[in-house]
Structures
1.
Amino acid sequence: MINVLFSAQPQNWADYETPLRTAFADAGLDVNLSQDHPPETVDYIVFAPNGPVTDFRPFTTTKAVMSLWAGVETVVDNATLTQPLARMVDDGLTRGMVEWVTGHSLRHHLGMDTHIHGQDGAWRNSSYPPLASDRPVTIMGLGALGQACGQMLHLLGFPVTGWSRSPKSVQNIHCLHGDDGLAAALRDAQIVILLLPQTPETENLLNAETLGLLARGAFVINPGRGPLIDDAALLAALDSGQVQHATLDVFRTEPLPKDHAYWAHPHVTVTPHIASTTRPETAARVIAKNIVRGEQGQPFLHLVDRKLGY
Ligand code: NDP
């Protein structure tokens, strides 16, 4: 019998209990799933960073901590966590992000706001939306989410450049990496999508200097993490017209404070960290698969590199 502790918000239990039980059974695992196993008996923790477990020291026999979240910046520095930490790579989460990124990219690309907000009885048909092939897109972060979004935008015809820490070769995406590739990745981009993790290296990556590399009137889309952007620099770039519009899903402080300049800015769209989320049915299968691997002595999938922070 494998003891799996579910440590997340109480309301998550209702969403996850049945999918997890089903996935464990389908994987042939004999699991005792509970929200309150004694720590010293726990084999695996299904973990949300906002759940009750914050001190991992009593979990002396725990083989791995399985995060329900893709972003692990709030747990990666936890000194009590000595067990392997797997982050969430979930097909449902990925599909949700692809849909959100594609929708917001097309909104800006097609200039949808002009007609949605400007319906005043005047027939103005002198200009047409450009083709995607004329609008270079850059995706910062070529992980599970960045690559999937890149493939969809490629299918729509956008020239897609991607930027990562280590060198990559990804079909349909012009890949650049590291400090040396940063300027080339951003230069003349018309849409920039941030899908990087929050780490000390990625903080303020989009700042006055890097925003200045973009094509004038570029669009910034951030479903990654708030600290990736120097907020003051973005507001200045929006006011000067260097950036035409920013669609932001994540912020340094969440919920975004009521008096934050982003709420009232005419060229900022705020969405409340809803770009995507882990989907219980698909995520439960990922967790079950990883526990099977653990039980068979195989390396866990999606392990976080604690030094790199993601
Ligand atoms: P991955 O870990 O799969 O990918 C991260 C990518 O960022 C990798 O390509 C990595 O490079 C790159 N990267 C990391 N550090 C650097 C650096 N210093 N310089 C250049 N590139 C770097 O993450 P995911 O794609 O799964 O998720 C990305 C982020 O999306 C999450 O960390 C989370 O913050 C956010 N997210 C937001 C959601 C929302 O609803 N708004 C939902 C889910 C996730 P390399 O490939 O070389 O390792």
Note: The pocket of NDP is lined by residues 70-71, 89, 93, 141-146, 164-166, 195-199, 201-202, 223-225, 249-250, 273, 275-276, 310 (CB under 6 Å).
2.
Amino acid sequence: MTNSSSSNTYKNIQGAIRRAGEDLGFSESTITTITNPYNVINESVMVEGIDTPINMYRVQFNNALGPYKGGIRFHPDVDLDEVKTLAITMMLKCSLVGIPMGGAKGGATLNPEDYTETEIEAVARAWVRTMHEYIGVDKDIPAPDVNTNGQIMSYMLDEFEHIVGRSEPGMITGKPIALGGSLGREQATSQGGVYALLKMIEYFPEKVGKKRVVIQGFGNVGSFAATLLAEEGFTIVGISDSRGAVYSGSGLEVHMVAEKKKTSNQSLHEMFDDHDDVLKISNEELLLQDCDILIPAALENQITEANAKDIQAHIILELANNPTSQTADDILKERGVLVIPDFLANAGGVTVSYFEWVQNRAQYYWTAKEVDEKLFQFMVDATDRVYTLSQKESLTLREAGFRLAVERVGRALELRGQK
Ligand code: NAD
């Protein structure tokens, strides 16, 4: 995502919050509070073994509903605008699904492929040393995002506990099970998205067509979405990674591809031989292929003015954060494409992160079945509320989601006397 597209997305989200806040009758000062971050931490940090300083960020957007919550991204495009955009989205997400947490996001500007594992560990530890005063179990709870994972969360937990001198597993989520992680966290974002999709399909059965799905991105979120949907009887006709896409009208063996991706460094293009049934295409081409459901599960700003009018899907399930530009959203609305917005579709991840935090605080751990049942309840409840309001007020699902999310944060601010 370029600086300017992050900055546009941020302004568009602020604008949508403002419209929702005005419709709900909130005061100007409440709306100003909801649309601006409480704390911005941005440091250039020297890391052991690395010659040049690395920019590190934490944006704490709003904690009216509870401690700040949001992942940490390691990516060369990470900048302040991007982190602010992701933090405001976290605030909306936590509020919409009804968990007692606020919004935050963090990052470090680097391409992990340029560094050794030891150097990445050093970056993770340096990030915690830089941010330790601002984070903690009752303050701000980070988690993984693009290019960070359970191992990186483990280094961060270890560094934090060394600094504070006590055990505090709930200071970070997305940990491996052995360090207090929750069962079900790994696939939670995708599983939550599948629950939201299945519920929405009950309301719009005509949109599901032949249940053919295209997924952009085959990392944590995209690969679990593919296998979970295949298990639900959907046919996954197209998938992609950063190096290209594959498409097969008769469907791809996604379980096999997911296994292979875990154990080899091969790209999807390298994995498939050239044959008639599987087309090797570009990521741009993938989005325009024949399908019923399109799932962006990679990076921001992939569905734009340039391609929205040619997308063939009837439903878009936004598992990535902010994958659709505002102009594209308007085009899709006009064309009658049902867009299940990111802050509903991918909220399963933060929901199970919240469950992890609850379990860490109680030091009492749930079974996979308990986690899944609770996730199902949260996702179905939020999906129902969004659908019901959208019907009642003739809003898109995104507009209804904004209204519900802003209402909860705004009321919390009013109750605190911050009007
Ligand atoms: P990941 O790093 O595991 O996977 C990202 C995938 O996208 C990889 O397959 C990568 O090859 C692919 N990719 C990168 N650039 C691409 C491009 N230009 N075109 C197509 N594919 C590209 O990340 P993830 O955790 O799966 O996250 C994916 C998206 O979901 C991000 O937007 C993230 O913010 C969002 N998200 C993740 C979670 C979570 O729990 N992991 C929760 C909520 C939202």
Note: The CA atoms of residues 93 and 288 lie 28 Å apart.
3.
Amino acid sequence: MIKEKILVIGACGQIGVELTLELRRIYGGSQVVASDLREENELLKGTGPYVSLDVMNKEMLHVQVIRQNVTQIYLLAAILSATGEKNPNLAWSLNMQSLLNVLEIARDEQVKKVYWPSSIAVFGPTSPRVLCPQHTIIEPITVYGISKYAGEFWCNYYHHRYGLDVRSLRYPGLISYKSEPGGGTTDYAVEIFYDALSENRYDCFLKEDTFLPMMYMPDAIRATVELMEAEEKNITVRTSYNIAAMSFSPSEIGAEIKKHLPGFEITYQPDYRQTIAESWPQSIDDRIARNDWHWKPAYDLAGMTVDMLKYMKPAIEARNRKNGKVH
Ligand code: NAD
Ligand code: AKB
């Protein structure tokens, strides 16, 4: 049996760090090559190989795929919704060209599987707001959403035209404590924990009643691995699967945190991200993922909050120690 050799691109980001660690646990440290533009993340150091790689440099990427005998690629490099609105051309260019580079090289080198995440950002104001279905009106208003929707169709195209086994999930907002989020509209749901634990207050950039679909990172990592390990015959969606876990508003997560930190206070100063958030559905219908490869989330708002408060405290203390704030 050929051993898998996995290349993770964007391995130092919010998802990349945790996904790389999980893939290394499953396939062995040396079988998973982490790559990014940034310096290697502290948590990845010593757990497996790391290469500095710009996914926009197609030749460099091609060389790595050949040199490392790569059999699977996970492409996580992207510019997210909030940062994307500040520089739409750059977001379009990175989000599209990185995917086309990966798909082309995967096809040329007969890479067995490709993973590329999409997002709930594909949906727009004309999509159903509650339990948004897999197949529906999709008219995104952010450059990030447009790039994700176009990317979904490129994945579908490479699958049907060239037989490339490319798989994808439309992640909701992801909540985690191991590495910081990178410029999304849903980032408030991570920031709130940092500020609650450091200052016992949080000034939210969304309105109190803005409901959004969210997921705790352990569920997102498990969903990714389960999708990639599912039998090919069970994969019926070759654009990108809806997946869901929980939906809440800033005031609801604030109230949940207050149960554990009684003095916690939340205030609201909505900015340009409010328009983005309001264009997305409040909740997602993920029945097809549940049927096809038995997707089921483990964490709800209460369970995620307990876990985040428990593990984020030591993470903040470690970060403060590193920055010389605490001795
Ligand atoms: P992130 O911004 O935290 O990480 C992206 C990583 O890509 C960064 O480490 C960055 O340095 C790297 N990168 C950027 N440009 C690069 C380049 N040219 N070459 C190589 N690496 C480069 O993002 P994330 O939150 O980990 O998201 C990963 C993927 O998941 C993205 O496609 C994103 O759209 C998608 N997604 C994320 C969320 C979420 O809530 N985090 C939700 C839906 C979809
Ligand atoms: C963002 O807010 O941009 C991301 C996403 C939902 O894709 N977290």
Note: The mean pLDDT is 96.
